[in-house]
Design brief:
The complex is a heterodimer of chains A (112) and B (113). By secondary structure, chain A is an all-beta fold. Chain A contains no helices and eleven strands. In chain A, strand 6 and strand 7 form a beta hairpin. The termini of chain A are far apart. Chain B is 0% helix and 55% strand. Chain B has no helices and eleven strands. In chain B, strands 2, 4, 5, 6, 9, 10 and 11 form a seven-stranded mixed sheet that branches. Chain B is globular and about 40 Å long. The mean pLDDT of chain B is 94. The chains are: A mainly beta (112), B mainly beta (113). Chains A and B meet through strand 4, strand 5 and strand 9 of A and strand 5, strand 9 and strand 10 of B.
């Protein structure tokens, strides 16, 4: 069974700082990995999708990397802003079946 | 596109009552997923469909839960009878074969008194 872990569970940084969120998974036979953002009381918003053949994806101040062999992905947020405060979740899709496995998330607070 | 649509957004009911949650996936998406999110257990997959056919319902907690997808644009999750421990936020998501990028609806916050 695929297990997905996100460390740290919570992170607090001052505005303007660059930061890295981590996601690790136990089974490297994945189809893709997706990063989401969830604001309190809201649904999940897709941020970045990395296919298994890709090493990284970028969108604005966000950069996600994927290292399948080591079972890791990182989400890099540049020049953090208070509006980035949210919970960030990663999810992996295995090669077999179509079930996504979610991490428990990292709760990010950016202090003005 | 309007995205994934869920209704109702909030539901408050009494123990023992039947609850029906509704979902309209993004047009053209052939996969539909139902999730439940709680503080204790995080995000749990309940069931998913491909081309309206249930593929994996191993996450459905009990026989009290049932899900249907009568056509490509509509799915329901029913709880009968409901219990206080069913209180959670229920999300619907959809994706397409190939890219397999999931898009979530806004969720239904269910409270069972």
């Amino acid at each position: 069974k695929q297990e997905v872990t996100q460390i740290p569970a919570a992170l607090s940084v001052p505005e303007g700082e660059n930061l890295v969120l981590n996601c690790s998974f136990t089974d490297s036979a994945i189809y893709n990995l997706q990063w989401f953002r969830q604001d309190p009381g809201k649904g999940l918003t897709s941020l970045l999708l990395i296919q298994s053949s890709q090493r990284e994806q970028t969108s604005g101040r966000l950069n996600a990397s994927l290292d399948k062999s080591s079972g890791r992905s990182t989400l890099y947020i540049a020049a953090s802003q208070p509006g980035d405060s949210a919970t960030y979740l990663c999810a992996v899709l295995r090669n077999t079946g179509n079930q996504f496995y979610f991490g428990t998330g990292t709760s990010l607070t950016v202090i003005p | 596109d309007a995205g994934v649509i869920q209704s109702p957004r909030h539901e408050v009911t009494e123990m023992g009552q039947e609850v029906t949650l509704r979902c309209k996936p993004i047009s053209g998406h052939d996969y539909l997923f139902w999730y439940r999110q709680t503080m204790m257990r995080g995000l749990e997959l309940l069931i998913y469909f491909n081309n309206n056919v249930p593929i994996d319902d191993s996450g459905m907690p009990e026989d009290r839960f049932s899900a249907k997808m009568p056509n490509a644009s509509f799915s329901t999750l029913k709880i009968q009878p409901s219990e206080p421990r069913d209180s959670a936020v229920y999300f619907c998501a959809s994706s397409t074969t190939g890219k397999n990028e999931q898009f979530f609806g806004p969720g239904t916050r269910l409270t069972v008194l």
